[in-house]
Design goal:
This protein is 5% helix and 46% strand. The protein contains 2 helices and 23 strands. By secondary structure, the protein is mainly beta. The strands form 4 sheets. Strands 1, 2, 4, 5, 7, 12, 13, 14 and 16 form a 9-stranded antiparallel beta sheet that branches. The protein has a 7-stranded antiparallel beta sheet with strand order 3-6-15-8-9-10-11, with no helix packed on it. The chain is globular. The chain has 2 domains: 210 residues, Exo-inulinase, domain 1 (Jelly Rolls); 68 residues, Immunoglobulins (Immunoglobulin-like, Sandwich). Strand 10 and strand 11 form a beta hairpin.
């Protein structure tokens, strides 16, 4: 029997080597942090949660919205990685006349150290119109307002280098991975999405965190959505590629059923609770949490 007990635990309590995808489509409209063990609100007074919304999406129907309120502020936990090469990628949409922001943090503990801040447009804190600006180097890359664009970070913690591409255009190309002002970096802790400016208005979709180097095609080929979630009877898998296998596990890692070459699986006989659905598409296998 295939064991995924450790994976189930990692989805509940973040493990050091965990890797995950969040496309928000298996969530409900409303505050995002209660719906994922990998997302936390910035721990400070007056901070508000970001919201899952249906207004915009790169992979339909939902995404995460960071509003123009100066208080929306969440961190995506990355496990304080200290070695190896890691890829963080996501899709972003920023409205015309609005701005956006994210940063990479040295630690999962919020505010310990910023290892790169990225200003989309001319925010009150930095940046210029029409480009995405990296604070420490001053490097820029173009983006198009009102259109989704891909952001991809590759961080080599052995060589302590940082590369960033915006829709394939290099913003950073193997430059030192370090804190603002040249402070030495220690680890890869989290990604922070923050309403840093009154003109902020941006959406995040298809967040992925993996060990190693990830090509854009690999992400697209592996992307899928499960629905409805919560499920009542039949769980469906939406994917542009053929689905090789679908397996359902309970929270202890026990395999409940498995089907091949199908984009649906019958869960009508299951009791109410949490389940983990493992989907294999080609050479990629990913697991999502499903509620019944």
């Amino acid at each position: 029997m295939k064991k995924i007990y450790a994976l189930a635990i990692a989805l509940i309590a973040f493990g050091a080597n965990a890797q995950y995808d969040i496309n928000f489509d298996d969530m409900s409209i409303g505050p995002v942090s209660p719906q994922s063990p990998f997302i936390e609100i910035w721990p400070a007074a007056g901070v508000t949660d970001c919201n899952v919304v249906i207004d915009e999406s790169q992979s339909e129907p939902l995404s995460m919205y960071v509003g123009n309120n100066l208080t929306d502020d969440v961190i995506f936990l990355l496990g304080n990685q200290a070695s190896g090469t890691w890829t963080v990628r996501f899709d972003m949409l920023v409205y015309s006349g609005a701005t956006g922001f994210w940063n990479i943090q040295d630690n999962e503990i919020a505010g310990t150290q910023w290892n790169g801040q990225f200003f989309v447009g001319a925010t009150a804190s930095g940046g210029s119109a029409g480009v995405i600006t990296h604070d420490d180097s001053g490097n820029t890359a173009p983006y198009t307002p009102d259109q989704w664009f891909e952001v991809k970070h590759e961080i080599d913690l052995d060589a302590m280098t940082h590369s960033v591409w915006i829709d394939g255009v290099a913003l950073l190309d193997g430059e030192p991975y370090q804190g603002t002002g040249g402070v030495p970096a220690n680890s890869l802790g989290s990604v922070n999405y923050y309403s840093i400016d009154a003109d902020n208005s941006y959406f995040i979709d298809n967040f992925r965190f993996v060990e190693g180097v990830l090509s854009t095609n690999e992400f697209e080929n592996a992307a899928f959505t499960v629905y409805p979630n919560p499920v009542v009877d039949q769980l469906n898998i939406k994917s542009n590629e053929a689905v090789n296998n679908v397996s359902v596990y309970d929270v202890t890692g026990k395999l409940l059923q498995s089907v091949q070459n199908s984009k649906s699986i019958d869960m009508s006989s299951y009791n109410s609770g949490v389940y983990f659905v493992e989907v294999t598409i080609g050479a990629s296998t990913q697991t999502v949490k499903v509620l019944k």
